[in-house]
Amino acid sequence: MRNAASRPPEERGLSRDGVRLLAATPDGLAHAAFGDIGHFLRAGDLLVANTSATIAAAVDGSRGDGQLVTAHFSTPLDDGTWLIELRLNSAEHERVLDAYSGETIALPSGASLTLLHRFPEAGSDRLWAASVTTDSAVDSYLARYGRPIRYSYVPDPWPLTAYQSVFSRDPGSAEMPSAGRPFTGDLVARLIAAGVMFAPITLHAGVASLEAHEAPLPERFTVPEPTATLVNLAKSRGNRVVAVGTTVTRAIESAADESGTVRAADGWTDLVLGTDRPARVVDGLITGWHDPEASHLALLQAVAGCELVSAAYAEAESAGYLWHEFGDSAVLLPPTHR
After folding, report:
1. Residues 177 and 35 in one domain
2. Beta 68-76 vs 284-288: how paired, if at all?
3. For 14, what's the count of Cα atoms within 13 Å in the CB-facing half-sphere?
4. Do 254 and 137 lie in a common domain?
5. Which of 61, 92, 293, 321 is most exposed, with minimal Cβ within 10 Å?
6. Do the Cβ atoms of 29 and 310 come closer than 8 Å?
7. 3-state secondary structure string, 214-261?
8. Between β-strands 46-50 and 241-244, what pairing exists: parallel, antiparallel or unpaired?
9. How many C-beta neighbours within 10 Å does residue 62 have?
């Protein structure tokens, strides 16, 4: 049975790194606290973390008939429009399914957004490309009138700081890249002292509540030159490259060629990882527990293999691990001869 974490661990009497950790390795499954993740890493391992910071991407609005909705600002496109998801302003946060092209949604302080077309294609029923009218830059407007996106399993609002990690530097993610959340500055320092290395990438995550049939949407990412160099050096020395989250995995693999060599990259990625496109670079993955829908599960399997992922999920459900962004964690470390 899956139990969702309804509030941050700090509100449950735990430190960030006090959440539970399930380590899935070739030696079997082990339970620990996240703060003990160093027991499963070794000197020379390279942990790659996402520096994207979460933005206040949810804004209340109203339709022409007075119906109250919440607009989720997912991703800015190159032409200045935004990808928008509309949800009912209710405890259940259901999707708005009867919106139409040309509809205008009124937002606070005289701002508005106009739905232009479905994204990524006409038959999609989830996201809209929309023009946004505000009296300031959209990011400034969101900082003033927005709040973090949350779903029905989190009944109470929490400040934006609850949705950031120790790595958060570059605002842009509609939803928190949550794998990095359990790290603390002290834990990072202890890992570095033990010989574990860190390197940054940036991938701005859009809205993540995908249905089972939906492929991951394109996302902006940057892999800087120093990170590419460190990744290639680690691989050449036989050390493991461990991604802190699925966002990191997508970014690193998007910057890799067919031989597994990583180069600096900046732009959009539409890469979809799975058993038919396994990871070429990433050897292990730190992740939270999320509903194992098709695209998410396929990415985990692309790194750790079907057998290890299935065993980990079965154990987590049996042991009552907590799901979603405020929940518990896993480190998946398959054999490195992959």
Report:
1. yes
2. unpaired
3. 20
4. no
5. 92
6. no
7. CCCCCEEEEECHHHHHHHHHHHHCCCCEEEECHHHHHHHHHCECCCCC
8. parallel
9. 14
Residues in the chain: 338
Residue at token pair 């405890």: 91
In a shared domain, residues 201 and 73:
no
The one-letter code for the residue type at 102 is: G
Closest CA to 18 of 3, 33, 31, 40: 33
Q: Say yes or no: 12 and 132 in one domain.
A: no
Q: Which whole-number Å values give the CA distances from 113 to 104, 231, 302, in the listed order?
A: 6, 42, 38
For residues 110 and 84, what is the distance between their CA atoms, to the nearest angstrom?
18
- What are 25's strand-pairing partners? 28
Quote the domain boundaries for residue 97.
58-145
214 within some domain: yes
The answer to whether the Cα torsion of 84, 76, 158, 68 is positive or negative is: negative
- The separation between the first and the last C-alpha atoms of the chain, rounded to the nearest angstrom, is 31
Q: Which two tokens stand for residue 127?
A: 């996201």
Which tens digits make up the pLDDT trace of 274-322? 989 999 999 999 999 988 776 788 999 999 999 999 999 999 999 999 9
**Are residues 127 and 228 both part of a single domain?**
no
Predicted pLDDT of residue 292? 75
